[in-house]
Amino acid sequence: MMWQDFVFMIGSSLSIVFLAPTLRDVSARVPLGTSVPSMLVGGTYAFTFSTLGMTFSALGAMATTIMWSLIATYRSPDDTAPVRGSISKATLFAQDAWNAAKRRPLFP
């Protein structure tokens, strides 16, 4: 077993510990522009780690992905009922991403 597998798993476990207060805080509001990309990156890491045979890292990354998906579902702004506004949340995220892309210069 590779030692790197445990290092990545510990890192993912720490991120879960740090994200837990956000999920527990009813007044917390995390923009979808933060939670959805973090969720997608975590899922990509989980898939990549699993293809490399790094089981513990994959499980840690998947747990982080689940935590971000819960934050996206329950702690996004302007949402009184979780899951009910999922389509409007996705639309809002797409609009925000489009507007941010239009304002950002192509070359710095």
Distance between the termini: 43 Å
- Rg, Cα atoms, Å: 16 Å
Sequence of secondary-structure elements: HHHH
**Percent of residues in β-strands:** under 5%
Mean pLDDT: 83
Spans of at least 5 consecutive residues whose pLDDT stays below 50 are none
Count of runs of 4 or more consecutive helical residues:
4
Structural class: mainly alpha
Amount of helix: over 70%
- What characterizes the major β-sheet? none
Tell me the overall shape.
globular
Total number of beta strands = 0
Folded structure, characterized:
The chain has four helices and no strands. The protein has 108 residues and is mostly helical.
Give the tags:
108 residues, 4 helices, 74% helix, mainly alpha, single chain
SSE layout:
Layout: H1 3-24, H2 32-51, H3 55-74, H4 86-103
Helix pairs in contact: 1-3, 2-3
